[in-house]
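Students often ask why inverse folding is considered easier than folding. One informal answer: many sequences map to the same fold, so there is more than one right answer. In these notes we will look at a single instance of the problem. The structure comes first.
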């Protein structure tokens, strides 16, 4: 029998506060990660506004209502206006524009729509590209797996889909098989994007484009992605075209805190500019990946400082890797502001996320929490082989190798390198406890002579091996 408890409005704010206390003291920060300036193909109204640089654009955004951060993601190639020198200038201007009350983030929008789609890339201090003389790091055009390998080599870096289509990125959302490399690099896909070319600065031109079906498909395939919301500004409208926001839960308004929260998928998409959604499973927040023998106990709390009423709160549940989209398992009545649910499943893996609809039709879509329940040690299924990616391979002795992997649950991890005779010649991690999520380890190949090696990883009681070739 399902355990569902609906709490009415008077109880919602105490629950919201209690959930925040039980987790970390997270705050809600509102903004956008997808925007362009005159350093690529944005600020198209610069003649009228006088704004053409990232600094001017950040300063405009900082004065917008309910807008705590802006990520400028310039196109990465000259076809859209990018020059390598301007990429460096943009990063410097982001630092200059950041204040205690506003954070300027700097990334790129990588790729070409006709060549496979766009990805937003953050947490990287170099320009990835393919045009001679116009990149810091060569990533071949249309090679999304190469892009994501480069992201995985940089701890803290991540990518999000931008206005995705089912055939984009080599068919990742549709026909392509599950990719551990992509799962480690990707953190989100948008609920809405745009309107990209709007000149509206009265917060009254929301996007009608929705990509929710891509989100549902990626989760069903087993990807660990959250749901974002993009403005894709190409005019000087940052934060003011629409009142829709990407909402990030972080302990402080700093670049480091926001990037860490985004990497951990602690965010959600909101058509409303200040709505608050607190979503937890066993007291762990949105975006978490958990493993526990206890039942999955879900709490949801919604609040709006403008007292906008929710007509429904719905909890969705799906099974990762099943290929079947999530379905509703609990719904709160109109006017409720909180919901609790305990999953009756005694074992197995599931993901959950929340949908909220406000009285004016605005929607709030939450990122998931992934939960693996084992009823007891005797019934815990054997852990699957850990998905490892070793890059580059074969390796150049002068260039370190990066080992990337995704842990479905927190666990101690041991990793070492074996020579051709099976002897351990290099320790990478000695039973170090690591949280769930994506990780990277560096293999210092300059300490090893050329030859054939094996990287051995022990996690959650399971050994996984990958061959490594070090050339002359």
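Output (designed amino acids):
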């Amino acid at each position: 029998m399902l355990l569902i408890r609906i709490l009415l409005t008077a109880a919602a704010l105490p629950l919201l506060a209690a959930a925040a206390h039980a987790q970390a003291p997270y705050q809600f920060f509102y903004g956008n990660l997808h925007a362009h300036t005159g350093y690529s193909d944005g600020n198209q109204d610069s003649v009228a506004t006088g704004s053409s640089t990232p600094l001017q654009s950040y300063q405009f955004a900082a004065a917008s209502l309910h807008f705590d951060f802006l990520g400028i993601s310039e196109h990465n190639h000259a076809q859209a206006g990018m020059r390598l020198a301007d990429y460096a200038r943009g990063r410097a201007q982001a630092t200059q524009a950041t204040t205690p009350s506003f954070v300027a983030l700097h990334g790129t929008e990588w790729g070409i729509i006709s060549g496979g789609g766009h990805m937003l890339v953050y947490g990287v201090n170099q320009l990835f590209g393919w045009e001679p003389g116009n990149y810091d790091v060569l990533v071949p055009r249309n090679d999304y797996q190469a892009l994501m390998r480069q992201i995985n080599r940089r701890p803290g870096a991540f990518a999000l889909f931008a206005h995705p289509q089912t055939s984009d990125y080599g068919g990742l959302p549709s026909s392509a098989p599950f990719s551990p490399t992509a799962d480690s690099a990707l953190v989100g896909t948008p609920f809405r994007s745009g309107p990209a070319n709007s000149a509206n600065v009265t917060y009254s031109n929301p996007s009608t484009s929705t990509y929710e079906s891509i989100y549902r498909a990626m989760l069903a395939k087993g990807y660990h992605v959250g749901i974002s919301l993009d403005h894709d500004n190409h005019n000087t409208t940052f934060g003011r075209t629409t009142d829709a926001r990407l909402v990030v839960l972080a302990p402080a308004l700093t670049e480091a805190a926001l990037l860490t929260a985004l990497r951990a998928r602690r965010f959600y998409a909101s058509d409303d500019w200040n709505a608050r959604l607190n979503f937890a499973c066993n007291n762990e927040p949105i975006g978490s990946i958990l493993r526990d023998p206890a039942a999955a106990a879900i709490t949801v709390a919604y609040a709006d400082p403008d007292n906008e009423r929710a007509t429904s709160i719905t909890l969705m549940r799906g099974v990762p890797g099943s290929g079947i989209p999530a379905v509703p398992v609990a719904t709160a009545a109109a006017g409720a502001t909180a919901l609790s649910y305990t999953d009756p499943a005694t074992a197995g893996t599931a993901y959950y996320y929340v949908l909220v609809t406000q009285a004016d039709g605005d929607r709030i879509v939450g990122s998931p929490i992934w939960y693996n329940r084992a009823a007891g040690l005797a019934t815990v299924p054997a852990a699957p082989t850990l998905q490892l990616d070793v890059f580059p391979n074969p390796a150049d002795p002068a260039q370190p190798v990066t080992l990337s992997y995704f842990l479905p649950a927190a666990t101690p991890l041991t990793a070492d390198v074996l020579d051709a005779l099976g002897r351990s010649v290099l320790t990478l991690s000695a039973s170090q406890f690591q949280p769930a999520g994506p990780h990277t380890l560096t293999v210092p190949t300059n300490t090893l002579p050329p030859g054939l090696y094996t990287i051995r990883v022990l996690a959650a009681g399971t050994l996984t091996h990958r061959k490594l070739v070090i050339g002359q």
